[in-house]
From TrEMBL:
Its EC number is 2.7.7.65. This is diguanylate cyclase. Signal peptide: none annotated. Pfam families: GGDEF. PANTHER family: DIGUANYLATE CYCLASE DGCM-RELATED (PTHR45138:SF9), REGULATORY COMPONENTS OF SENSORY TRANSDUCTION SYSTEM (PTHR45138). It is an enzyme of class 2 (transferase). Coiled coil: none annotated. Residues 180-309 form the GGDEF domain. Its cofactor is Mg(2+).
C-alpha cells in the first residue's frame, strides 16, 4: 500500500488522458491492482449511467465468488447513502468499503477485503483516484450527448451498435439469459417541415425536445435512445422477440400521438425496426430500419413497420436500388 501515496499524481494523469470508457475502466483496474497489491480480494461496483436509478454493477472484481457470497449491493448502497458525506471508509466485518460519490449521490463503491488494512493517509489517495475516474467518465459521457435533447448523439451510435453486435453488453445476459435479441428502430417526426414553416424553428426545436423526452422516458434505463439527425431518432433495445419489439415501439408511438404539444397540438412519428444480427455492418442495420421507416411513411405515417415483413424491400436492398428519403 505504500505505493499509493507516491503515485497519486501519476495516476491522476493516467486517468484524465483516457479517451474511451473502456480504456478508462482498464486504467482504473490497473491502478487499483497496483495500489491494492497486498489485498487478496477487491471489487469496484459502479452505476455507469451516473444515476441512482441503476443499481451499481461490477466493473471489475478480483474474485466473483467472494463477491457473490458476501455482497448485497442494494443493501450496501442503502447503508452508504445514510452515511455522513465526510465518511470516506466504512469498515465491515470482512471488508472495507470506500463509497464513490458523484454530485452528492452514492453511485458505487470499492470493496477491499480485510487482508490489507487501508491506512487513513492512503484511503484519501484512493478516494481521489476514484473521484478522478468518475469525473473523467462524466466528461466522456457529456461529449456523447446531444445538447438540445440530452440524448446520446450520432457519434456514439456506431460505437454502441458495434459493442452490442460484438456481445459486449454482458449485464444483459446476466439479467435475462442468452435468449434476448437486440433491435434497432429509426423514428422520424411526421410532417415536421410543416411545424417549422407554420410555427418557426424555436417551436420546432421544442417539439424535437418533447418527442425526445417521451422516447427516453418510455424506454428502460438499459435501452439506448439517440438523436440520429435533425428530427430523426434511433433506438437500440433488447427484446425477447420481434413481436414484442413491435408492440413496445407501437405503444410509444401511441403515447406520442396522444400527447398534446404546446402550440402545435398533435404530433406523430413513424418508425421502422430491424433486428441486430451478428452478420452485418452498422450501416446495413441502419439501412434496414430506414427502409422500414420509409415504408411506414409510404403507408400513411404514424405507424411501425418491421424490415422482416418487407419482402419487396429485401429484394431491392439486395440489388441496392432502394430509394431512401
Ligand atoms: N427546428 C428544427 N428543424 C429541423 C432540425 N433538423 C431538421 N429540421 C427540419 O426538419 C424538416 C424535415 O422535413 P422533411 O425531411 O422534408 O420531412 P417532414 O416534413 O418531416 O415529412 P415526412 O418525414 O415525410 O413526414 C426540415 O424542414 C428541416 O429543416 C432541427 O434541429 N430543428
Amino acid at each position: 500500500m505504500s505505493k499509493v501515496s507516491s503515485c497519486g499524481y501519476e495516476w491522476t494523469i493516467q486517468l484524465v488522458s483516457q479517451n474511451s470508457e473502456h480504456m478508462l475502466d482498464k486504467c482504473l483496474a490497473s491502478i487499483l491492482s497496483a495500489a491494492l497489491a497486498e489485498a487478496s480480494l477487491f471489487a469496484f461496483y459502479f452505476s455507469k449511467s451516473l444515476s441512482i436509478q441503476q443499481t451499481p454493477c461490477a466493473i471489475f472484481t478480483s474474485s466473483e465468488q467472494w463477491l457473490d457470497e458476501q455482497l448485497d449491493v442494494p443493501a450496501l448502497v442503502g447503508r452508504l447513502n445514510k452515511l455522513n458525506h465526510d465518511v470516506q471508509l466504512l469498515s465491515l466485518a470482512q471488508m472495507q468499503i470506500l463509497p464513490v460519490r458523484y454530485q452528492g449521490l452514492i453511485l458505487g463503491f470499492l470493496a477491499v477485503d480485510n487482508s490489507a488494512i487501508i491506512p487513513t493517509s492512503e484511503h484519501n489517495v484512493l478516494n481521489h483516484v476514484l473521484n478522478i475516474y468518475v469525473h473523467q467518465l462524466a466528461t466522456l459521457q457529456y461529449a456523447r450527448i446531444d445538447p438540445l435533447t440530452q440524448l446520446l448523439n450520432r457519434q456514439t451510435f456506431d460505437e454502441k451498435v458495434m459493442d452490442i453486435v460484438a456481445g459486449k453488453e454482458a449485464w444483459l445476459v446476466r439479467e435475462h439469459g442468452n435468449d434476448v435479441k437486440w433491435y434497432i428502430a429509426m423514428a422520424d417526426i411526421d410532417h415536421f417541415k410543416y411545424v417549422n414553416d407554420n410555427h418557426g424553428h424555436v417551436i420546432g426545436d421544442e417539439v424535437i425536445l418533447l418527442v425526445a423526452q417521451l422516447l427516453k422516458s418510455n424506454f428502460r434505463i438499459g435501452d439506448y435512445v439517440f438523436r440520429y439527425g435533425g428530427e430523426e431518432f434511433a433506438i437500440v433495445f433488447p427484446c425477447k422477440d420481434e413481436g414484442k419489439a413491435i408492440e413496445k415501439l407501437d405503444s410509444v408511438r401511441a403515447i406520442i400521438a396522444a400527447t398534446r404539444f404546446p402550440q402545435v397540438g398533435s404530433v406523430t412519428i413513424s418508425l421502422g425496426v430491424a433486428e441486430l444480427t451478428d452478420n452485418a455492418q452498422v450501416a446495413d442495420f441502419v439501412n434496414r430500419a430506414d427502409q422500414a421507416l420509409y415504408q411506414s411513411k409510404q403507408d400513411g405515417r404514424n405507424r411501425v413497420t418491421a424490415f422482416s415483413n418487407m419482402d419487396s424491400a429485401k429484394d431491392s436492398y439486395q440489388t441496392g436500388d432502394i430509394e431512401l428519403f
